[in-house]
From TrEMBL, chain A:
Species assigned in the record: Halolactibacillus miurensis
Localization per record: Membrane
Keyword Glycoprotein: no
Pfam family, one: Spore_GerAC
Protein name: Spore germination protein KC
Keywords: Germination, Lipoprotein, Membrane, Palmitate, Signal
Domain spans labelled Spore germination GerAC-like C-terminal: 221-376
Spore germination protein N-terminal domain residues: 21-194
UniProt cross-references to Gene3D superfamilies, sorted A to Z: Nutrient germinant receptor protein C, domain 3
Signal peptide: 1-20
Family: Belongs to the GerABKC lipoprotein family.
TrEMBL record, chain B:
A cellular-component GO term for this protein: plasma membrane
Subcellular location: Cell membrane; Membrane
Family the UniProt entry places it in: Belongs to the GerABKA family.
Name of the gene encoding the protein in the UniProt record: gerKA
Record's keyword terms, sorted: Membrane, Transmembrane, Transmembrane helix
Organism: Halolactibacillus miurensis
Topology term for the membrane: Multi-pass membrane protein
Transmembrane segments: 283-302, 372-391, 403-428
GO biological process, one term: spore germination
Name of this chain's protein: Spore germination protein KA
Domain of life: Bacteria
Higher taxonomy: Bacteria, Bacillati, Bacillota, Bacilli, Bacillales
Amino acid sequence: MKKKVIGLLCMLLLLSGCYSQTELNEMMVATAIGVDKTETGVNVTLQVLNPSEVAGGTTKTGRPGVSCYSETGETFFHALRRLTRITPRKIFLSHIRFVAFDEALAREGLLPLLDFLMRDHELRSDFSLFIVKEYKANDLLKTLTPIEQIPANKVLNSTMATEEFYGTAGENELEDFYKAFYSEGVEPVLTGIELLGQVDSGSSIESIEQTEPETIIKINDLALFREDQLVGWLTEQQSIGYGYWTNHIQNTVSVVSVNDALVTLEIMKAKVAIKPSEKRRHFDVTTTIQASIGQSAWGDVDDLAKLKQALSDDIKNQMSQCLDRLREEQIDSIGLGQLLYQNQPSVWEEVKDDWDETFQNVTASYTFDVTISQNGQITAERGAPK
Amino acid sequence: MRLTFDEQATETIIEQIKKDLRHREDLVIRPVKINEATIYFCYLTDTVDIEAIAIETLKQRFVIEKKRQNSDALYYACQEMGPTEKEQTPRDYLNVILNHQLLVVCESAVSVSIGKSHHRAIGEVKTQEVIRGPREAFTESVVVNQAMLRERLKNKRLMFQTLTLGTETKTDVKVVYLDGTCKKKLVDDIVKRLKEQPLEGILESHYIETLLETNVKTVFPTVYNTERPDVITAGLLEGRCAIIVDGTPFVLMVPALMFDFLQSSEDYYQRADIASAIRILRVGSFFVALLTPAVFLALTLFHQEVIPTALLVSLAAQREGIPFPAVTEVLLMEITFEILREAGVRLPSAVGSAVSIVGALVLGQAAVEAGIVSSAMVIIVSITAISNFVFPSYNLAISVRLLRFMFIISATLFGLIGIVLGLMLLAFHLTTLDSVGISYLSGFAPYDAEASADLWVRERLDKRKQLFQLKTVFKREKVRKR
């Protein structure tokens, strides 16, 4: 009797079948999603992998590594489900690298769209968000890239390289956006993407058969958001300034002019400490910079002090440019309000209700501590100017 | 002085033997005249060392003893030839002759152990090979094996308890233990168990292995077997009990714990740090051998999100055009490999190379090129198979082979949850097991700080309080009642 019961229970296990099981060759791995505004709703574009073209060790047919499918719908999710009518296999979203939106959608507000991305169980929340400047997200996804067979990877790698070596862009993931969105005294930003060249012909394989492809994907400057709505774009200098304010600069360059000669300095380390001062709406900003000379047309080593001064001025200029712009737009993207909240909660309680107006009048005083430690590999023997 | 002989008694015994063994063509009854008397030598052809039958010495001594009116004249006379014993009943006569001994009959009967043994010489180990360490292996002869153990353990406490088991085969079985180190209760229990169940015949030590197992419903071995005398010696010093069975070089040892099957004697013959690293590797390959195909299936069928994209793309590309579901692929390859392995063991060595060529080509290259299996699957099956050969003990290796299929099925049905479930069940199962009353995971569970230092890694021998640490564990744990 006992044996029979155990036997029956074992059979019960088999009844579950292979619930939610998917074979690898029954699914379609999406690498990126693009969402554009249409008159009736949204247009969703999927960039999916063509495994046998991308994987090593298989025979290639010369087709592109990715394919794109797009479909419209009333909402994001609706459009995505309508896509199944044209996709050859089940869509698998866990591996997406980024989601891109066009400017029109971003100006309307991203929250309704992000809701789906946050809610759906199949998505990992570690993908980045981008705003496509001028063009449609559909155009971005269709663009093929040389070297990287998966354009989504190219976008992400370029962003990471820009973040690491130049500082104008940031890899803003879904969770970062939500964090900034829900935190008091800080507003989100997203990295923008620009398309250069003949955008229409970037989707054909001929485009990447040339040394210079027809369409080039460029990681652009930062997009400013109020709540979830796009309000404007920072300039290149302002974006670097934003990096300093938020301590995101890992490495960048500054070009300064000293004694009528241009010197390019590599910023190796930048640390910005912001302290709300007793004077309300005023912040003391102390910046510690470690730089090295990257390129110089200037020979007088005695003028190191002057060089330091010039570098301080340049960074100060970038930071104040950024602050001025934000004050003008009345958006506290750099999180000064949050800083106030953390350091002087009582003051924050007073000003938080009309922080946007208060922010308009904030002032900052800058102090710099610059060290120029390395001259690079150049020596007198190797042609250093005397 | 004229000697008198009881011819009648002699005749009766001889008649009895002739009657009992009337169908045996190999029976030799050789009469030798001494004065008026006749002495009969009874034995089976080729079982007795004829050279050792010293007739002249026997004659002289027999006459001398007879003149002294010694009633046991034959007994004393025969002692010149070898170990002698007096035999009384017809049943004894029969046993002596069938046991390859010489029966000398004159008035009474006396057995002389001058049996000729047909055994191979001590050879090298075949199953648990080591790079450094003794190479001698046990042989099929219980006498030789006993001598080998005596050589290694020159200790008066080394005890051999002889049993004759098998109603038909009458096989010699010796229970070996170190008196005082091994629990007396354990020895008594083992002897009792062996005597309890009369088997018709014992051809290999496995026949009595089943008698020693407490848990029958398990795939895990709870009795250790080895042909290495050094392993048995170490076991005896730890307070274990060994059982030598005549006719097989594989000596049994109990209690046997889970970790014993993952350890090699060489662990103790190499530097501690290196031995530890190898031991960790072995535990690792236990899990590799057990879980690799299951984890691969679980990840590719249910949890594609945890596979790095580049790898996922590569795996997906390989699966393009494969006609079978992934689980069929795994089972196909695993079963093919099992067939090849079994064939490799049974085939005569002359055709062995043919199997390896066919195996390598058919299993590996051709199957992939024909698009029947993906190349990732070949890698998975190969690493699993190789890991399975890491275990020093063959019986654990077979258990793992079986369990692997269970994990493949549970992974196909439930993904990683199925694997975790399976591992939990496995853990529950292992904790309930015991070997002659000692918990199967002793040292680890129940935990013993001292003994556990020697489970996953190998401690330096000079750092130990006690060289043979399991001794305390065995002493402390009660022998469980069945």
